[in-house]
Amino acid sequence: MEKKLICISCPIGCHLTAVRENDSEPWEISGNRCPRGELYAKSELTDPRRVVTATVRSNSTIMPRLPVRTSGPLPKRHIDALLNQLYAMEVEIPVKRGEILLANVENTGIDVIFSSDCNN
Ligand code: SF4
Question: Is the C-beta atom of 8 inside 6 A of ligand 1?
Answer without folding.
Answer: no
